[in-house]
Design goal:
There is one protein chain. By secondary structure, this protein is of the alpha+beta class. It has two domains: about 5-160, PurM-like, N-terminal domain (60s Ribosomal Protein L30, Chain: A, 2-Layer Sandwich), CATH 3.30.1330; about 175-330, Phosphoribosyl-aminoimidazole Synthetase, Chain A, domain 2, CATH 3.90.650. It has eleven helices and twelve strands. A six-stranded mixed β-sheet has the order 8-10-5-11-9-12. The chain has a four-stranded mixed β-sheet with strand order 1-4-2-3, with helices on one face. α3 packs parallel to α4 (about 110-125). The N and C termini lie far apart (about 70 Å). Its EC number is 6.3.3.1. It is found in: Cytoplasm. This is Phosphoribosylformylglycinamidine cyclo-ligase. Keywords: ATP-binding, Cytoplasm, Ligase, Nucleotide-binding, Purine biosynthesis.
Length: about 325
């Protein structure tokens, strides 16, 4: 008799993985969660809103996973997966409610899969949302053993009249950049082409460890600011860097004028550039030390920066808005 296990799928290991995952997921449960993991679907009760709009986003970790495989470390990439999703929906003023994950692999190893979910749970806790379900797919012959793919899906909520969509942005508004935690989760195909020895020393650490620094989650910081100030537009600096992402907050034909000398560029970006990447391409690929951008009235900019720094983040006035649709102008 031929069994599923002989075909490469270990059901018992799957049961073990789910048991380990449940512990981490339960730590994220908020008041809206109505059932535990293990049902056919996750259930979440929407809190009281006057005119609620659900805001959704989905993303993955990309080839940063290759660094995790090579470093044999799996507990941080789950944070990246959550961050890439929740930071995106945050740009429209949405508070994340719940998160679902998808993990695919060639051969399931319960402990390793649980490490990934441990990171996802940590990310959800940082974002204030619940991990209410997901899928773990064992696909022998499709993925190499020891390699995983991770994707996530989140849903948030915002009052309809509080949606942030850039319609109130005007010339001379100030652009505030909030520091990133590092490279975040973009540009790793280029990085892996340039950096092949992950054990090389970089400022006293293995460079592979630097490259695995998780993406910063901005949710609690931004939601706090939204309660105090008028935020007109926001951009999560992901793939496409400054050039692609900052103009996404504009409803009209405006230019974001960015002063390159206004913020600190972390050493890891300077090192990548020293390996032969031109500066313009760096700003079109990486966050360069700025992971999230706000557009605000000029009279509020100093107070907003002060509040951000009270919450143990660094922020800078990185530029301003001008009329004329030229996208981004770096000076």
């Amino acid at each position: 008799m031929v069994t599923y296990k002989e075909a490469g799928v270990n059901i018992e290991e799957g049961y073990k993985a789910v048991t380990l995952m449940k512990k981490h997921a339960s730590e994220t449960f908020t008041n809206g969660v109505l059932n535990n993991l293990g049902s056919f679907a996750g259930m979440f009760e929407i809190p009281k809103y006057h005119n609620p709009v659900l805001v959704s986003g989905t993303d993955g970790v990309g080839t940063k996973l290759k660094i995790a495989f090579d470093m044999n470390r799996y507990d941080t990439v789950g944070i990246d997966c959550v961050a890439m999703c929740v930071n995106d929906i945050l740009c429209h003023g949405a508070k994340p409610l719940f998160f679902l994950d998808y993990i695919a692999c060639g051969k399931l190893e319960g402990e390793r899969a649980a490490d990934i979910v441990k990171g996802i749970s940590r990310g959800c806790i940082d974002a204030g949302c619940a991990l209410i379900g997901g899928e773990t797919a064992e696909m022998p012959g499709f993925y190499k053993e020891g390699e995983y793919d991770i994707a996530g899906f989140c849903v948030g909520i915002v009052e309809k009249d509080e949606i942030i969509d850039g319609r109130e942005i005007k010339p001379n508004d100030v652009l505030i950049g909030i520091e990133s935690s590092g490279i975040h989760s973009n540009g790793y195909s280029l990085i892996r082409k340039l950096i092949t020895d992950l054990n090389q020393d970089f400022n006293g650490k293995k460079i592979g460890e630097i490259l695995l620094t998780p993406t910063k989650i901005y949710v609690k910081l931004i939601l706090d600011l939204m309660n105090k100030y008028k935020i007109k537009g926001m951009a999560h600096i992901t793939g496409g860097g400054f050039y692609e992402n900052i103009p996404r907050m504009f409803k009209q034909d405006y230019t974001a004028v960015i002063n390159k000398g206004s913020f600190n560029v972390p050493e890891i970006f300077k090192y990548i550039m020293s390996l032969g990447v031109e500066e313009e391409h760096m700003f079109n690929t990486f966050n360069m030390g700025i992971g999230f951008v706000l557009c605000v009235d000029s009279e509020n900019s100093d107070s907003i920066i002060e509040d951000i720094e009270k919450m143990e983040s660094r922020a800078y006035k990185i530029g301003h808005v001008e009329a004329g649709g030229k996208g981004v102008c770096l000076k």
